């Protein structure tokens, strides 16, 4: 009886191990959501997991070192071709408001003695990215918060500007707290209500439906997948999903938004980096309203 039971279980398991079914988009996304409940994955996680030793840091699961001796290949790519690094785990804070008000308050957490600031002409135009060290308000040269990079959105004729500040996840909470203090942003503009993480029972139902659709591969198969949508869950390892992600100041009108994991960030190194970008990205046609 035990042997028959084992054979029966093996047959049931084999039904779910069909590679064609497992590789379908609906099943890949469900598996992606299920396996990142404890540590947030980057979009390139699966690629790295197959080739790197993974480490758990700052709430994320990141590739640390390659499983093979690929140092020469990386060096060759950096010096002759192009090497891409996924820096999406870096945190992004977006500031929106009047340019004068933004510059007035940001001047309190940096200093001209350390180099270019948020007011630098080349950076203020939005053409170049800047970098500097942030300090607690009016405390320079003491109480340094840490290094950040920033980029302004180019002017569009409005007095309101957008500024994106990038920082290491270990520095995010301190910098966010200081920005909320200097801009007096205390009230949440929006309450983030996350979609419930798919439970194992729901995942099984979705996979069962996908498998049943996979048995009849007809033209209506695509419509079947749309009928059972599964959204990829991209979380933030530095924030509780039930916390607000945007704050507004009633006094200054400044809005601070947490764009971590909403804006991906990649670093390209090598002499052919520009060529790779021009071949990969195609400029959209200019549309006027």
TrEMBL record:
Organism: Columbina picui
Record domain Pop1 N-terminal: where: 5-97
GO cellular component: nucleolar ribonuclease P complex; ribonuclease MRP complex
InterPro entries xrefs: Pop1, Pop1_N
UniProt-listed Pfam families: POP1_N
Biological process annotations from GO: tRNA 5'-leader removal
Protein name stated in the entry: POP1 protein
